[in-house]
Write a structure and sequence with these properties.
The protein is of the alpha+beta class. It has one domain. Helices cover 18% and strands 38% of the residues. Helix 1 packs antiparallel against helix 2. The longest helix has 17 residues. It is globular and about 40 Å long.
Length: 159
């Protein structure tokens, strides 16, 4: 039995948010490639021993209190004690499509943990909490620091 657990978070509004400084000539695919490279560089940065952690298949539902959309391929789960986890969609690019600030994120999970292969979905708060868009399958959870999360948001143009 799948239960739906709603973790409300603001989804990034693509067009109204300022983006990182980029060339006027940069295409959408070039921007995605640049962001992918910069995110990978952030993830390759060595963490302090207290921040270091292995990539996880699951995190306990009570360990995070906020989910934030980074782009159409990634979300960050925020937890207490300055913890955060970056999650890439399991099955490739562009699951989420165009999102607006009045959308919220819900998690469809099979247990008290949110795990790889669980799904997130989007809720339109202006339409009586109606589900909209596709369900996105979660990948593994990569531990990152809050500082890394802030930097990833900056390079992706999320405020």
């Amino acid at each position: 039995m799948i239960t739906a657990c709603l973790a409300f978070a603001v989804a990034a509004e693509d067009e109204s948010k300022p983006t990182a400084i980029i060339s006027a000539q940069e295409t959408v695919s070039e921007r995605r490639e640049r962001v992918d490279i910069e995110v990978q560089e952030i993830l390759n940065t060595t963490l302090d021993d207290e921040d270091y952690g292995e990539t996880k298949r699951c995190i306990w539902s009570n360990r995070y209190d906020k989910i934030e959309m980074i782009d159409d391929r990634r979300v960050i789960f925020y937890g207490g004690r300055k913890r955060a986890w970056l999650n890439h969609w399991k099955h490739g690019d562009h699951c989420a499509g165009k999102l607006y600030s009045h959308y919220r994120i819900g998690v469809e999970q099979r247990s008290r943990q949110v795990c790889e292969h669980d799904r997130i979905f989007f809720i339109d708060m202006n339409m009586g909490m109606r589900r909209v868009g596709p369900k996105c399958v979660l990948g593994k959870f990569e531990p990152i620091t809050r500082e890394q999360a802030d930097y990833i948001k900056d390079i992706a143009g999320v405020k």
